[in-house]
Amino acid sequence: MVLAGWLGWLVSGAVGASGISFDYQSGAGLSVSMNGVPVVRKSMFQFYEPGWTKGYYSSTYTTQTIERPDADTVRMRFVGADGRALGSGVFHREGTRLVCSYEFTWKGEKQANVELTAGLIWAPAFEKGSLKVEGAKVRSLAPGVYRSKSDMAERRYGGDASSFEFEAPVGKMGIRGLDTKLALFDARGYSQDFAEGRDYLWLGAMGIEIQPGATAKVGFELDLSPKPISPAQDLELSSVTRTLKGAVAAGGPRMPLVPKPTASTLDFTKPVLVGLASGAGDAAAFRKEALAGLARRFDETPVAVGPLKILVTRQEDAPVDSYRLSISSTAIKVALGPMTPVERVARRVALLAFVANGKLVLPTGTLEEIPATAWRGVHLFVGPKALAFHKKLWTNVLLPMGFNKVVLQCERTAWECLPNVRGGITMKRADLAALCDWYRSVGVEPIPLVQSFGHAEWLFAGKANQDIVFNPDVPYAVDPRKPRVKELFNKLWDEVISVTKAKTIHFGLDEVDMLGFPHDPKLVTELWKIQVPMLGEIAKRHGVQMMLWGDKGLAPGEAVDAALGDNAEEAAARRAVIPKGAFVADWHYKAEPKPSPFMSSLMLWEREGFQPVASAWFRPENIYGFNLAAAAHGFGTLQTTWAGYESSEEGMLAAPEQFSAMVLAGDYATSGREELPEKLGYDPTEGFRSLMYERKQSVRGEGGLSLQFGEKLDGVREVGPLKVLMNESVGLGSNMEEEAPLRSSVSINTHFRAQEVDLAVDTLAKADEGEVVARVLVTTSDGQTVSRDLRYGIDIRTPGDSRAVLRGERAKGVCLVRIPLGKKDVAVTGIRMENRSDYAGLRLFGVTAI
């Protein structure tokens, strides 16, 4: 019977390669799927100096030429910026076989190595299956527990081999090396960028040696046999509406004390009713901000004048940016240190409020906050939607988390001095000016960043400004030796400073020779000595502070990573021409929880007369170790984001881990607390959700309706603040699950009136973070439709994935998706779920209407 089933799969796959698709994209590499289920997500290759002391070419960060001569063939060609690394690839499908052939040529002066990631295999497709290596069965493909995040040896499936055979409900995939043996290891949780937050098995060849003038050929083939499937069907259901008492609970979970205060005696068991007395000056500003914060969190707010007097004093001998808060039955007393905005304390008070016995209350006692670092920043980009998005992000999350600086990467603005540089993600000058004014109004210093040497692709868009490009074939950096460079950047920065009214300006200056340069450190230093002093003169002429990234001023060994200064002599020469006192954004992204490895570069910059700013990324260990290193010496901190060149809510949802990390960064930068991230007692993603997307808590509770759409019920379950009548699930199915055939859609006919519909859902299988897995449409009696795309990790997860979701509550694996209808008493006639994934498998358990 097993043999017959396997032969059936082969026959099905052989007929026009049914159910098999593949592609090769520049930068992303090879992707392969069976019946819509991804089995290979991407591929890549890189040339490097033996010992990994230097990289020569990476397919991930460069462009390859792609040709598709027919439906079954893709051809790829590449040439490095300096012409030393070049080659090609051919990917050809023959029935169920996909043959992949690479040629790598090296024209350097000494040996280079190539690492080929033949494929990043998507592990969830095979987790319920098995694997044979050279015909012998190996350990389970389920996620494993490893001693180290960086030890490849314990993660390997056998040794280097010529054949691998995967078998799972999705089908079978055989892999055979043609010219070399391949390695396979479990990259889930592996400490490399490509594996971060992904479910990959790494397949490839390491250390392919190429002598000068030689060509290495590497080939392999995939034999793909998808399981036969039936065409997806539509399902239509009727429903019965039931009354649900107490559908919305009164109150909700209290916000954790984040950032952690320096000291606190707050007692939540002896609360006082919220009622804020009116006042003038700082007291009026406090009351206004506190009421605005309460209105965002609760469906009832104390709009009337109350008994709690607001008493604000300023203490010039207190630590800078500190405050002390005292709440009693008669007054809220606030003692502000120098430069502390009273609104910051008001935001904290709004987050302290909670519901008790149908009333809005505050705890009593004291709270003191003395920030561990005075300079606490976030790095963001701009764009057409940035004005509204930044206001929402900062009002809801970043201001409560204590940040007071924003580095705005704003080169993609409609600058009047550059009318030939425009694009679809360009921000209007007036919007940028308004955004900077708004930042100042809420106590945040805006720092404009415009890349002014390398990373200048923005300046050459549409083949503009080709007369000042360093390498016309790779338009990446300006050539400071050309006279118009000085003229252009003086005019540009005059305009930037005029529009933003900045007191500090950031010139970029990271990775200036990453693309389009020969390997010539002395040439880079020569150009640096022209460009950096010129930029320093711009800052001096305007009387503003200079800021730059620090990587090109650090030699290997002088920092934990990102030491791109080539060698000690060149790095020192570059540091020597940076104006003293400049802020140096010392960026290092290693996931290292120990503060000591980060100290060397911070202390080097300080010794030589600069102001270092510890600049971390989203990895929890990186944020923890680097922030503690900065706090030990009072250096500033900057939380960077690299989620595309346009700042928008859509961009945030595509890279949620980079934004939820801001909660962690704000906590450590403000509090200086020393607990490891896993010991904090809260989930940063849940913290971000509760700030950014928290539904208003009901002070008194509320009734609602529920739907019965199946024959079997499983009682009422609490999911966040709502009750849900749990049905036997109905879903969209998955081509990864034999017992859940794929459906195109599920429609439920309904007859009820509401202002909001909440769905209790999960998925059968994992998907990529941010991936759209389904669309929900709620139809009303007037023919209008309210739709919502559901994204994995943002709205929904599979039960085995215990992480929080970004936009909704979750309990016992079930996620709550909220769909506001825009007004009260809307007649709802139908709920429809449309499939957007052949494998995720959305499941609906219940519907609550409010």
Could you characterize the architecture of this molecule?
The chain is α+β, with helices and mostly antiparallel strands and 850 residues long. It has four domains: 2-226, Beta-galactosidase, Chain A, domain 5 (Distorted Sandwich), CATH 2.70.98; 233-247 and 701-849, Jelly Rolls (Sandwich), CATH 2.60.120; 253-369, Chitobiase, domain 2 (2-Layer Sandwich); 376-692, TIM Barrel, CATH 3.20.20.80. Strand 42 and strand 43 form a beta hairpin. Mean pLDDT is 94; it is low at 1-17.
Helix content: 10-25%
What structural class do helix, strand and pairing data support?
alpha+beta
Q: What does the average pLDDT come to?
A: 94
Number of domains: 4
Output the CATH homologous superfamily of the largest domain. Answer: Glycosidases
| Number of helices, where a helix is a run of at least 4 consecutive DSSP H or I residues | 13
CATH architecture of the largest domain: Alpha-Beta Barrel
User: What is the number of strand segments?
Assistant: 45
Largest sheet: 9 strands, antiparallel
Provide the gyration radius in Å: 29 Å
Q: In CATH, what is the class of the largest domain?
A: Alpha Beta
Shape: globular
In short:
The protein is of the alpha+beta class and 850 residues long. The protein has 13 helices and 45 strands.
List keywords for this structure.
disordered N terminus, Jelly Rolls, 13 helices, nine-stranded antiparallel β-sheet, 45 strands, eight-stranded parallel β-sheet, Beta-galactosidase, Chain A, domain 5
